[in-house]
Amino acid sequence: MPTDGARRTEILETAATLFASEGLRASLQEIADACGILPGSLYHHFDSKEAIIVELVRRYRDELDRIAHGALRDLQHPTSQPVEERIIEFGRAIAACGVRHRAALLLSLYEPPSVLGDELALLASTASTAIEGAMLELLREGRASGAIRPGIDLTLLSDRLCQSMLHVGVGVSHMAPGADLVPEVRLRLLLDGISPRTPSNATLDRSHATQAVEKVVATWEDESEDDNGRTTHLRAVARKEFGRRGYEATTMRDIAAAAGVSTGTVYRSFRSKDELLISIMRSYTDKVKMAWEAALSTASTPLEKIDALMWANIHVIDRFSDEFRIQLAWLRQSPPSTPNLGLSVAWYLRQIKALLAEGDKAGEIHIEGGNAEIRARGVQEVIAFPPTIVRAAGTRAARALARDTVLRGAMARRRA
Fold it and tell me: Which residue has the higher pLDDT, 109 or 262?
């Protein structure tokens, strides 16, 4: 017979597996069934689903803080280990934590539903910044020693490195063959860059791929309103609510309340939540794919195309941040069961693989470590720029950081 402590741990681990796969739609009944116990026995340990989620998120945050404090302690001791290796070691620890606590990580991407209580809302609103602080101190030491190139905003770089590592646990890359190399490959993409001979900013700005992207972005006008503006208004409100709460946790009643109308009014415009979601995301995915196809169809080099795709995605984050957040749910192992939204991750991955193969053959792009799949997924991740950086720094500064990391590498030394 398991002890209370062992049973509590089993419940938490089982719940974490279900939440990581199913999201908030996983019920207490399903958790109890997966544990092979009656719901009454589960209530002996946790009085609600909120209590389980709070415990999972708290454990995740506590471990992140321990990792950060350990890194800061290590900085107090002299070492001959190169700063790049220390960054990679720290990054691996962050990535492993994100994977171990994948359920809490995924649940933290959105605001928790109000029905889950104030404690979880408070916990979710006080995100830990310890790992960014520790990474920043490590980067400052690297800058002082000459290992990090001058001119790069270290605060933004710290945020970029930490988010890249945490996001190892967002998708399914950590489950793929060779997954143990994913953190290092992603870090080296940002620290070493993908090309030893990167064109100047002026040359990249003039590339046909960049010009093609900018022409498409210029067509991303706001939606025109219908006769009374109701449909446009409801779609705008739903976009915000889905982006803030997540699709599964948002109800048509939530949307009606936020829009200041009755639930019946929402249903007269959209027959279901699925229909409303599709009306939002189809326009978004069409615009994103249009920008990618415009860049890919030019005669630009593979490196220029990757630069243009990063610029396109920075604009996507700037203009469609809610849609970007909405689609994160579809990166789960078991995405929401809705009609096809046009989120063809496989299509984008194929384009990146083709660009990398062409660039490698031409001697323009070189990425070390992992297999072709891991490298392509790594490039796909660094192309999708973090919304926090775009919001905090603006599109131009985000683009500068993208070029100074993905293309040129943040480290002062370059590959031979």
Answer: 262
